[in-house]
Every structure is written in C-alpha cells, then in structure tokens.
Amino acid sequence: MQTGQKKEKWYRKLRHKYRLVIFHDETFEEKLSFRLSRLNVFVLLVSLSVFLIVITTYIIAFTSLREYIPGYTDITLNSRIYEMARRADSLERVFQQKDVYISNIRRIIEGYDAENDSLEAFANANLMRASAIDTIRMTRSQQDSLLRLEFESAERYNLYNQGNLLSESKRRAMQTANFFVPLKGLITNAFDPRNKHFGVDIVANANEAIKAVLEGTVVFANWTPDKGYVIGLQHAGNFLSVYKHNSVLLKNEGDLVKAGEVVAIVGDSGELSTGPHLHFELWFNGIPINPEDYITFN
Questions:
Q1: Domain boundaries defined on the chain
Q2: How far is CA 171 from CA 38, 84, 279, 282, 289, in A?
Q3: pLDDT higher for 18 or 198?
Q4: Segment of 8-17, 97-106, 224-233 carrying the highest mean pLDDT
Q5: d(CA 258, CA 236)
Q6: What is the DSSP string of 80-145?
Q7: How confident is the model over 95-122, as a mean pLDDT?
Q8: In the chain, where do the E strands start and end?
Q9: How far is CA 43 from the centre of its chain?
C-alpha cells in the first residue's frame, strides 16, 4: 500500500502546475509568466530533440553537406569524371592539330612540303591506335591507297590552278585586305611556283628596315642554313607572310606586331642568297599567292 501511494504521488507530481515568472530587475514589474508542469517540460524537450534529429538527418541525406562526412560521396562524381576525361581527350586532339599546324608553318617557311593536318588525318591516326589494341585488323587495297594519294595531292599541293581552289568570297577578302609595303625596291625574281619560287625577291640597300604587311603574331623567327635569318607572321584571315635572308631579326616568336612595324633588317644571310635583298612570300590558306597582285613594291 505504501509503495502504491508513493508511485501515485510520483505520477501526480508530473501534473503539478508551476508558474515561471519574469520580473524587471529594478521595478520588479512582472513581464512574462508561464504556467508549466513537469510533464509539459518533458514533452517539449523530447519533441525538440526529435525535431533536431529529423532536420539533421535531412541535411545529411539530401544536401551537399554529406560530402564532408567521411564515407559519403557525390552520386554524380562518376559522370563528371567521365565528362572531364572526354573533354581532356578532345583538348588533346586539338593541341595535337595545333602542333602540326605550327610545324607546317615552319616547314613552309623553310621551303619543305607541309604534312597532312586535317581532321581526317587525326581520325585515321586515332583509328590506327585503337586497332592496335583490337584483334580486328583493317587493311586497304593498293588501288584504294593510290586513289586517296592522288586525290589528296590534287587538293593540297596544286599550287598553279589557284582560281579553282579559292572561292569568290575568299578572293574578295584578299583583295580588300590593306597590305602594308614590306620594302620598297626593285623586283629581280618574280613569283614562279612551278620552279618552287613561292615569293618575290626585292633588291634594296643594305640595312633598310623590313615592315610587317599586316597585324599579326610572330610564329617563326630563327636561322636556317639556306634562307638565313627568317621571320614568319600569322595574320587574321589565314594569311601568312614570310621574310627571308635578313641580317637581323627584331622580333621573337610569340610577339604581336602591327601593320607597318619593323620586324627585320635587309641582309644577305643564307647559302642561297646572292646579295642584299628580301625574299618575301605571302600565303593564304596554305597556298602561296603572288604578292605583286596585292602589293606595289616600286
């Protein structure tokens, strides 16, 4: 009986009402008052705890904060890694093509034939790398290879029928370009692509300044045994200007130059030079064009 009375008294104590009153510290004026019981306080604390647990679980499960917890990872990580790898592979191909393009510019300046830098060539190269791993081997017949070689040669190295290679829009763009005269002088050797003379020879006094024909970027500035000191400029619209047999180069590779800016000094460098002069070449889309059609040197 005594134990039952004690339990009853303990249970009743949970329902006893208490008043929480807040007074002003100086005037003792009553500001707030709350009527509470032990049971109300317990239920309130339990409810608050459950609410905090639910909110914390939601934040961890459905927000990006879970990535900072050891053991969790982003569900899109694999797809992002795949996309980054694909873009890196694409950038690698672009850089490879740019390297071949710059190499072709150097070869053209030095008087050699350019390599194939088309997208098809890179696709074929990648196919060959893939076939090295695969067990299937793809081969071409001799007739097919000869036909491809004949077609590519006709497209890339036909330096004489320029009217068939250049569209009317490109020809108009070339005619409206304002070329600056690189050097005033007498032309002693004209443009003759059949004899592999892809420019004009301009005789002038020694130590005269050579100027850039258009605004552009220096892509080649170096010494070659045959052509001496050579500098090449890449311009907008796929124009390339080349200046050979100089005595001094005043610009370095990567420099930006403006039209009419001095880039070199007339000289007699190189084994193929016969006196102080400038050998000037003008290329458009990888095809040599006659500079006298667009520039007056006298």
A1: 2-60, 78-156, 172-293
A2: 95, 41, 24, 14, 11
A3: 198
A4: 224-233
A5: 12
A6: HHHHHHHHHHHHHHHHHHHHHHHHHHHHHHHTPPPP--SHHHHHHHHHHHHHHHSS------HHHH
A7: 69
A8: 17-23, 30-37, 186-189, 199-203, 209-211, 216-224, 228-235, 239-249, 256-257, 262-266, 277-284, 287-289
A9: 64
Burial of 187 by CB count in 10 Å (0-12 exposed, 13-18 middle, 19+ buried)?
middle
Question: What letter does residue 291 receive in the DSSP assignment?
Answer: G
pLDDT tens-place string over residues 244-280:
999 999 999 999 999 999 999 999 888 888 888 999 9
Helix axes 2-14, 38-62, angle to 10 degrees: 60
- d(CA 174, CA 176) in angstroms, rounded, equals 6
The span from the CA of 44 to the CA of 67, in Å, is: 32
Specify the 3-state DSSP secondary structure of 24. coil
* Rounded Cα distance, 154 and 214, in Å: 30
CATH assignment of 172-293? 2.70.70.10
